[in-house]
Amino acid sequence: MNKKTKALTQEQYKEIIETLKQGFCGCRPNERVATALVLEANLGLRISDILQLRLCDIVRDGDRYRLEIVEQKTGKHRIFTVPMVIQQYIENYCLRNSIQHTAIIFPITERAVQKQLAIVCDYLGYTGISTHSFRKWYATEIYKNNGYDIALVQRLLQHSSASTTQRYIGIEPQRIEQAIQNHAQLI
């Protein structure tokens, strides 16, 4: 984990994805890289796992979709729900680009994604952002939008401890301690 990599803000996320999709002077639009990063930001997977995805990996399970993978980095088995809007986003991308159901959706390297992202971030004036920033953004947003439940984020990211997750999303232990102290209410 690169400690210098930071989570994106909502504005950075939107601006990076839009810039990748539209391109700019000296840089062609790149829907493939934009889509891979959107999936990383919405599924919380590492880019290495996103780049191995096939449409057939996302399976209908009753009235929902699920994805079952073995994480490349950790070797951990992971099964989770894919929101319908994300499944449709992936399916539409595959249809537009004539990607077969069993084919790798993003036949590119991690390095190619990183390189394209670096060009866009340089153009936008952003520093400290890498592909991993999108996974950190996912973790931070889940944390903020679900009652600051560190255990939930820990389970989603498959971290072995809550302290790892706290460091990952940048919550210092003293801030947590302060929040607990500030909450103490006697009747």
Describe the structure.
It is a single chain. With 187 residues, the chain is mostly helical. 53% of the residues lie in helices and 9% in strands. The protein contains 9 helices and 3 strands, in the order αααβββαααααα. Strands 1-2-3 form a 3-stranded antiparallel sheet. Helix 6 packs antiparallel against helix 7. The longest helix has 15 residues, at 110-124. The chain starts with 9 loop residues before the first helix and ends with a helix.
Overall helicity:
40-55%
Q: Quick one: biggest sheet?
A: 3 strands, antiparallel
Described by the principal axes of the CA atoms, the overall outline is globular
- SS-derived structural category: mainly alpha
Number of helices: 9
DSSP strand tally:
3
- Mean pLDDT, nearest integer? 89
Gyration radius over CA: 18 Å
Q: Poorly predicted ranges (pLDDT <50, ≥5 residues)?
A: none
Count of distinct structural domains: 1
Let me know the CATH homologous superfamily: Intergrase catalytic core
Q: State the distance separating the first and last CA atoms.
A: 44 Å
